[in-house]
Every structure is written in C-alpha cells, then in structure tokens.
Design goal:
single chain, 11 helices, 255 residues, elongated
Amino acid sequence: MQRAGSEVEGGEFPIIGLGGPQSRIRQAIRKRESLLLIGPPGSGKSRLLRLAANLAGGDAICLRFRPVPHDLLAALAVLLIRAAHQPFIGSAAPRGDPERWAAKQTSVRLKGLIWTALAVEPRLLLLDGVENASHPVYRFFQRVYHSPGMQIIAAARHPAGMGALHRLFWDPRLMLRLPPLTDAESLHLFELAADHFGLRGLDLEDFRPRVIGSAQGNPGQILEMCRMATSAQYVSGAHVKFAPLRIDAMARLLP
C-alpha cells in the first residue's frame, strides 16, 4: 500500500494506507464515473472527498447531506451561487445574501433551477454523510445522476443506512469500501500524531498499544485519541487515563 510522507503539512495529516482508493477516485474523475465510498466514521471518507475536490479543481461542488429535502436543495443552490455557476445564476437571478435568498425559494423552483443549470453545465458533486435519504431526495438526485456529464461521488457509513439513495449505487463496481489500516500503517500514523500533538512527554509505551489496538485500523480514531491526550482532564503526570479518553473519543466520532 501507498505510504505517505513523514510530516504533517498545514495541519492536514497525510492519507496513509489508502493508495488503492486514491487510485480508484482518480480513475473515476478521469472517466467521469460516479462512485460510492463506504466506511465507518473515521475511516477516511471525508478526507478522500477533499482529495477528489482538489483533483477536480473548480469543477467540484462539495455538499454535506441533509435529510430535509428543502434544506438540501437550498444548500446546493447556495453552493452553486458561490461557485459562480453561471447557468444557475443566470436563471435564478439571486439577490442579496445567498442563504437568505435560497431559504425563501420553494422546493419546486429550486429543483427546476438546479436540474436545468446542471444539464447546461455539469459538475462533479461530492455528497458527504448520506444517511436516511427519503424517496423525494432520491428522485431529485436520480435526475441529477443521469444528467449527461454529471458525476456524483458520495460517502456513507453503510449502504443499508443510506435510505432510498442507495438505489443510485446498485452496481457493486461503483462501490468502494475503505479498508482498515494495517498494524504498521496504524503505528506510522500514531507516531505522526504524537509528534504533531506534542505527546512525547507522555508514557507512550502504555498509550501507544492501547490506541492502536482499540482503533482496529481506523485512522480517525487514532488521530482523535491522540488529539484528546493533549487535554489535562485525560492526563495524570505522564500517564494517559485511557478508559475515559476512549469513551469520549468514540462519543465524538459516533454522534
């Protein structure tokens, strides 16, 4: 598997152990294919969506999923305005603050404007945190999905939790399950995090194996536990109080 560099750049940790998924995303963008990323919280889905956005440049629209249809449509409309999507802006003629304008529009009008605009100027749509999607949301994205030139890369914890939107990604070839890190990759990420968060003064001989063992290859859990170890409430002398730290870390990652 691909190994990353040894330093954290700009506060962003390197993507470790996901060389295969990175290559698949690059291939999907090059071929204008849609893709579904599957993995538990902390597995790297959002990070890979950011990679996709960087690869696509100005062609990408990054949308956090919302279960309420109007909220979702309004958020997408705002993103299109801020991305200077000219077909949308030309048809919608928004005035003033984009969020206030979008909130005042009807769902029917927003759907029509978005469908028409994306048919004229397709974009890569990155949809994060898909969960419990309703049939109206599915029907909206179904038309977007099948619009010529459109591409959707979505991320979800599990297909069964996506609701109706799972029907868009029925083809197993369009589903990418993120693998856990190996022990060596987990150790590499831990050492990067220990340096970045300044943990070298702690008893890492005790903390390190507990973090790696409990995370079971989940990079987000490794990083969150290391970050939380900087808080005085989880430290006694050089000893990290692992049990409460672990409980609180999981609570943060599993809302």
